[in-house]
Design goal:
With 513 residues, this protein is of the alpha/beta class. It is 58% helix and 8% strand.
Length: 513
């Protein structure tokens, strides 16, 4: 119980200055993202800001990965667009609450461990695609609305000014750590560029030009929808997708932060924390969300490693909403754009570019495909799912080619088939081709000492081969099968040669059958 309620590791050395300054930087970076994502979903900017506060606070306290930042995200916003248009914001709140419950259930059932099934090539594709999406999303800051109400690229002095301010921001973020690490480079860059713009009265786009962030403490609000079966039928599909997308993005971000910090997060605990955060977000007028890879990388690159930075970021965000909106709305978007571009550059796995020609072709294709799906469809969950499926199929195909049989006839005229490699759905056809039932002698032994029956397709293949030898009037012995394999075989009760000492003890993955 002591470990269960131990939310904070008091033995961990915490750099309070780094944690607080990093949290402040993240809070500033959260504002335009939360506003933009809420607008994408067709919601009020405050709906996204409230979600960023609630998600960030709860996951920072309860989450399985200290230093990781959660908030309103584009992946969740895209899922909610059609729901907002068809049924309104109240159904969004209800959906987010239900999605949170599903996520908590996933954590309790310890389903977070399945994120380990994501291959490294998929991780590379996910990270690279996300980096490109982050970079391309910043290009909108270089566009203005023309007289016709359409977006067009900046030109002339307006463009040069924007580029100059972005370049200064990026230069500070790149160069300052080479001189000193006393203060976070990201926060310094935002403050310096903001000082230049405000001090010299430079006309450029600011946070206030996107939307006002002035608000109060998130109001507690029970969704005003009919509590009946019809409402459940409306929100459940959306809740399931929100829960799935949120967990996939959060757990992949957790893995990425694990690699950067060379530590180990707790996936199932993060699932529960994400679920609790979404439930509270829905109850406090938020749109819900998940882990944010961009803000998490800002936090980690600033040196934050503890829970304090996320808590500071959330509390400061709420402070800005309630008391500092007029000041924050003066921040130039150029500074935040430069920051996010540097995040995109840092997120991209440049080492993966050197893998071309060195990694297997299948891995390279999976990596590229996941990247393209992420970039063009903006659906991270779908991209990862496609990558995992293709990787699994490639793995199955490669293993299917490994099954082989060594054949010999002993001094008693008994023919032996020594099987090597796994017997499963992918290798069944090759397995069946190994046997010459008509021309074999009257007694045959198939030895599985160097093989393993992996699924029901393998079991069925054994049933069929025993049936073929039975119809030919020949005796077949199956040696070195596991206990559960023998139980599931139907046609071989009288022909299995049981060797208790040498039979393997592995379990076939059909326990539920």
């Amino acid at each position: 119980m002591k470990q269960y309620f131990k939310l904070f590791d008091l033995t961990q050395k915490v750099d309070y200055k780094t944690e607080v300054l990093s949290g402040l930087t993240v809070a500033l970076a959260l504002i335009p993202e939360a506003v933009a994502f809420s607008l994408i979903a067709g919601l009020s900017p405050l709906t996204g800001l409230y979600a960023a506060f609630m998600m960030g606070l709860v996951t920072s306290i309860l989450g399985g990965r200290p230093g990781m930042i959660s908030g309103a995200t584009g992946a969740i916003a895209v899922v909610l667009v059609s729901l907002v248009k068809a049924h309104g914001v109240e159904y969004v709140f209800a959906t987010v609450i239900l999605a949170g419950g599903i996520q908590m259930l996933a954590g309790v059932l310890k389903l977070g461990k399945f994120i380990r099934l994501v291959p490294h090539s998929v991780m590379f594709g996910f990270v690279n695609g996300l980096a490109i999406v982050i970079f391309l999303s910043q290009m909108d800051q270089f566009k203005v609305i023309n007289a016709a109400g359409a977006l067009e690229w900046m030109s002339g002095s307006t463009l040069y000014l924007m580029l100059g301010l972005v370049f200064i921001t990026m230069l500070i973020i790149w160069g300052l750590p080479k001189l000193t690490k006393v203060v976070p480079a990201s926060l310094t860059a935002i403050l310096v560029v903001s000082g230049i713009v405000i001090g010299f009265g430079i006309e450029t786009r600011t946070v206030g030009d996107i939307a006002s962030i002035q608000g109060s403490f998130p109001p507690f609000h029970i969704p005003a929808i009919p509590f009946n079966l019809e409402s459940i039928q409306i929100i459940f599909p959306y809740a399931l997708i929100v829960a799935g997308v949120g967990l996939i993005e959060s757990l992949l971000t957790l893995n990425l932060i694990d690699e950067i910090t060379e530590t180990r997060g707790r996936g199932n605990k993060e699932c529960v924390a994400q679920g609790a955060a979404n439930m509270l977000s829905g109850l406090f007028s938020g749109m819900g969300g998940c882990a944010m890879i961009g803000q998490s990388l800002i936090n980690i690159s600033s040196g934050a490693r503890a829970r304090l930075s996320g808590i500071v970021a959330s509390v400061m965000l709420l402070f800005f909403i309630m008391f500092g909106a007029s000041l924050i709305e003066q921040l130039p978007m150029a500074a935040l754009t430069g920051l996010m571009i540097m995040v995109a550059i840092g997120t991209f796995e440049w080492a993966s570019m050197r893998s071309f020609g060195k990694m297997p072709v299948s891995d390279v294709l999976v990596m590229v495909l996941v990247t393209l799906v992420t970039v063009f469809l903006h659906n991270l969950a779908l991209a990862v799912l496609i990558g995992v499926i293709i990787s699994a199929l490639v793995f199955a195909w490669e293993n299917a080619k490994r099954i082989r049989a060594r054949k010999h006839i002993d001094e008693h005229g008994v023919k032996h088939y020594e099987i090597y490699g796994p017997l499963f759905f992918g290798s069944v056809a090759t397995f069946n081709e190994k046997f010459d039932v008509l021309n074999d002698p009257n007694e045959v032994i198939i030895d599985f000492a160097e093989s393993r029956v992996a699924d029901m397709s393998g079991i069925e293949a054994l049933n069929k081969i025993t049936e073929r030898y039975r119809k030919a009037g020949k005796t077949l012995h199956l040696k070195h099968l596991s206990d559960d394999c023998r139980v599931l075989l139907k046609n071989a009760e009288k022909v299995i040669d049981v060797n208790i000492i040498e039979d393997p003890k592995y379990r076939l993955a059909v326990d539920s059958l």
